[in-house]
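Hi both,

Apologies for the delay on this - the queue was longer than expected. I finally got the zinc ion-bound model through. Below you'll find the protein sequence and the ligand SMILES exactly as submitted, and right after that the structure tokens for the full complex including the ligand.
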Amino acid sequence: MSTEYAASRASHDGATFWLQKSADGKELVIEGATPAVLDAFTGAADGDRFTAPANADNAFALRNTLPWLKPRLWGLATSAGTGDRLGLCTPGHVRAFQDVTGVNPVFAQQSTREMGRTHRTPRNVMDDATWGAFQGGWTGGVGGDADHQKTEESLSDCAEAGFIFFTVDPGDEMDMAAHDDEAATVRAKAQALDLSLLDTTPADLVARYAGQTVELESGPLTLDEEAVVRAVAKAGPALVRGFELINHVKSLGVTHELEFAIDETDKPTTLVEHVVVVSELQRLGVELVSFAPRWVGQFEKGVEYIGSREDLARNFQQHAEISRALGPYKLSLHSGSDKFSIYPLFAEATRGVSHLKTAGTSWIEALRVVARHEFDLLRAILKLSLESFEENRHSYHLSCDPGKIPTYPSDAQLDDLVTAVDSRQVMHVAYGAVLENFGSEIKQALDDHEDELYEIMHQHFVKHLEPFGARA
Ligand SMILES: [Zn+2]
């Protein structure tokens, strides 16, 4: 007995393709294909029907056979990334993109940190996204974002797996102290930098921008000397490391787009930093398709924006004006999930030349299925999340108070614990430890209730996408 995923049915070059679920797992079925097409797949023929397991080799063959499943460049078109750590949520994401026109999907999106914590390879991420997009019947094209790349090695691995959009993140090299250091300290820091890789010196770099004016729509932005020196001291080391990583991407010889991300830092990216970083990259022949600054306020995992929305609206507007004056290139909103109140501000400021990046919200929302059906499992997940919290919270901005989470929640309380900020964040960041210990039980629960999982994703993501597009 096998059940067809009706939405997956697609025709191409006279052949029909669909996905079905059988006792052995998911299978690709192809009817009416030529031997040349079938040659790429590994499976069994029965008359005109060919059945192939949904494995890595067949995912690769499927991407090469159905062109809309192979990652493509989105350029400046409005896009959003769905970052599915479980590898099971993409069919639900597809439903949301089918409901909202004008926003292009990046289903395959994972940082190397997330891949490490979930024990997935870039190929796993790519293949799961391929099967999910196919299952959901998405034919509108897909991106592929190797998110938060910090090493040459992971860039190579992601390129090999078929990723095409590289988010280069040299944020660890940012000198955050230079944001507030005394002027003399900042000057000494800037002067001490070795910028030979950028084919320049600190003095030349400062001289290039100090006193310059960038004409913005709202008026001229003058780069005063002290702000430029500070930008060089703070972002100069990251610029060097970023350029190194970008050169590595270029050396791989693959078609690609680049995002420069310095969002995971403690202090906001100043306007002068934005101008200096992007202008220097341009001087060195690097064209970015998007830039992810650290915005003002707090972007915490899985919850609404924390801070003044007026300040943020102005911040969006100023960075967007710079991106139009120097580019155009997209601005990228990271840790972008669940911040429903700010999407209209971002869409308006960027005029849709934007990328929304969400990473963990699918994970936490998937736990809703567990909370509704597997009460003891959810309690065990919560307990482990609390026990491992101090370790998990590292590298995330969080304001949750684990002390406010009920120790022995009743069955009826569990769904609300997925929503409530304290428990939501604690479980949000625990994905590594939780998947390590309960991965197979969670995946079983999600598989047992897969349509419910997809519907949760569908409803949740429509709310993310609608401000950037139009209801279909
Ligand atoms: Zn980010």
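Main takeaway for now: Residues 148, 261, 263-264, 334-335 surround zinc ion (CB under 6 Å).

I'll put the files on the shared drive as well.

H.
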